[in-house]
Write a structure and sequence with these properties.
The protein is mostly helical and 202 residues long. The chain is 63% helix and 3% strand. It contains nine helices and two strands; from the N terminus they run H-H-H-H-H-E-E-H-H-H-H. Strands 1-2 form a two-stranded antiparallel ribbon. Helix 2 packs antiparallel against helix 3 and helix 2 packs across helix 6. The longest helix has 17 residues. The termini are far apart.
Length: 202
């Protein structure tokens, strides 16, 4: 973990988020969330058997996954993909294929509710294991004791940026806990039981 977060691109993304995303307007999506996603992604990546290069791609994807919040709230993933593409045009490192993997991984952190009323992540390519791992790392709080505390921070954001109402938000949270499916075996092993416990508490 220590070596991966020293990479220039990870430092750049952390500094970008630190400089533009304040805890007042983004109490959840400020820099501690990004750092936690990178850390949890690395943990899952190790368990899933990623090699060193894949771990670098994963750490980069995690570091940039919320960078789009520096420009807008809704549909920020598209902006994050543009930011990471611009950075690596100016600082070449990854192959075209690796850049596709990174952009797909950032896109995989977008969420919606499908026609069956299930909470889903918008995975663009199920063969992209980096994207599957990042999707799990981004929502790992669903399967932790901190879920309710962090959810309050998300609600504050939504009130500010999308005029959310409490009843609608709580219904969304319950749907999330009840229907969310983890993308990797390692995440299921780590988070599924506590996710079920959180649903019971809810």
């Amino acid at each position: 973990y220590a070596e991966l977060i020293k990479m220039p691109e990870v430092n750049y993304a952390f500094n970008l988020i630190n400089g533009k995303i304040t805890k007042e307007l983004y109490p959840f999506h400020a820099s501690p969330h990004t750092e936690e996603v990178v850390k949890n992604g690395i943990k899952i990546g190790i368990l899933e058997g990623l090699n060193d290069r894949e771990m670098e791609v994963l750490a980069t994807s995690g570091a940039f996954h919320d960078s789009g919040f520096t420009e807008k709230y809704a549909h920020n993933e598209e902006i994050g993909q543009q930011i990471v593409e611009k950075y690596f045009k100016e600082n070449p490192k990854y192959t075209t294929e690796e850049m596709t993997i990174i952009k797909e991984a950032i896109g995989s952190t977008a969420v919606t509710v499908n026609e069956r009323g299930e909470f889903v992540q918008l995975i663009q390519n199920n063969e992209n294991k980096i994207a599957l791992i990042l999707a799990d790392a981004d929502l790992s709080n669903l399967g932790t004791p901190e879920f309710f505390e962090k959810s309050k921070k998300v609600y504050v954001e939504l009130v500010v940026h999308e005029k959310a109402d409490k009843a609608g938000f709580e219904a969304f949270l319950e749907k999330m806990l009840a229907t969310h499916k983890w993308q990797t075996k390692s995440a299921r092993d780590m988070y599924e039981k506590k996710q079920a416990d959180n649903l019971k508490i809810f």
